[in-house]
Specification:
The chain is built from seven helices and 16 strands. Strands 6, 7, 8, 9, 11, 12 and 13 form a seven-stranded antiparallel beta sheet that branches. It has a five-stranded parallel beta sheet with strand order 3-2-1-4-5, sandwiched between helices. A four-stranded antiparallel beta sheet has the order 10-14-15-16. It is of the alpha+beta class and about 350 residues long. The chain starts with 13 loop residues before the first helix and ends in a 10-residue tail after the last helix.
Length: about 350
Amino acid sequence: MVGKPNDIKKKPTKKERDERIAAHLPSVLHYHNTMLTDKVRNKLLKKAISKALKPGMSFLDIGAGTGVWAILAAKLGAARVVAIETEESLIPIIGRVAQENGVADRIEIIHGRSNDVRLSGRFDVIASEIFDSNAFGKETIASFVDIRKRFLAKGGILIPERFELMAAPIIYRGRAAAEAAGLGIKTSFLRDLTLNYSDAISFPASSSLKFLADPIPIISIDFASVDETYTALGEGTWQLRDLSKADGIATFPRSTFLDDITMTALESQSWSTGYYPFEKLEKGSGKLKFSLSPDSNSWAVETDSPERRVQNYSPVFAFTRLKMAQNMTPHRRFSGRK
């Protein structure tokens, strides 16, 4: 079916593109400055790239950001260096930073998505951290499979080699209470709605977490062998001395860059910790099981208690409860004047 002319998506004008870049630039600069000042991440990635890359090899940086790893590769003597980045505002930054370090003539900069890019030849070492909010989603997996199949040389090294989602039951001191602070007014309905949404806990706030058991991997991806059929369904079980202490599950990535060079989000300021809340459990020892959907939006917890009640959470449940309450709440509505 041929769409109407008005249905065709218009290409943004130069003015619209510039406005988008200007509006987006502060968050881009803040995010990449956070990564650049992450000493733990920088040290480990530098160690991995330096170990993998020998003079005369080729290096591909996908999701190059500010281009520091492509610049490092050029300084290490790579014969060919290519940096691919989707964010338009970062392209001139890569160029100028490369100039500052005297390697601009040795780095090819490409603006685009790795899936769309066509390159001649293959690369001995590829560094790629193209992880979005759902690092274990199908799109991310498909991108890594594509990178491996089209760009990686035989016997080549892909950094990171493995990516895992670690999880553990916790006490989160930042969790909202059932009453409005200092008012003595119950807000349990609001709290129950909020329980259906996970949260991201920033690096400085991670000190407010108390782990009740050792973290374990609930999802693990080996980038050398994973294929498009992979489904990231996460499950983990822990034995707790007192189930009633736990108020949620914390999740955080663990990235193995190369061999034993590994980094967890708890060591790095570049990653946040996920928080999946749930209602208070029964008092006493027992097993706690956590299940996470492939899209990371829905989760469930259950125990091995006699009741074995399963708690299920999803944004869909919160929205449904809200709409039901809206229909049952007497209220008057005023529309804006025409």
